[in-house]
Specification:
about 100 residues, mainly alpha
Length: about 100
């Protein structure tokens, strides 16, 4: 299970790097003034969406735990792949004797 937590830390860390790079790329893009979206209700609505999304993500991690989310699926897949590779190697070595 330690590998799952390490993998989760790597995935989250890379997510922060990705978010930063997307932010930098978006700020470098040319834009034009759109007065319709430059109002307080539009900004408030966008902030509410961010808060709701964050609550959904945090509640899923609280309910499922770090290993109960997609990280667990990846860990189980990698572990199964490793076991099948090891079993195939072991089986082929027995047949060659």
């Amino acid at each position: 299970m330690d590998a799952c937590y390490a993998l989760a830390a790597v995935v989250f860390g890379l997510g922060f790097v990705r978010d930063y790079l997307v932010d930098v790329a978006m700020r470098e893009q040319p834009s034009f003034e759109l007065r319709v979206l430059d109002v307080v209700p539009a900004h408030s609505f966008a902030q509410c969406l961010v808060i709701v999304g964050t609550l959904l993500v945090l509640s899923s991690f609280y309910r499922l735990g770090v290993t109960g989310t997609a990280v667990l699926i990846l860990c189980v897949y990698l572990n199964d792949l490793q076991e099948r590779t090891w079993a195939t190697t072991l089986e082929s070595s027995w047949r060659s004797e």
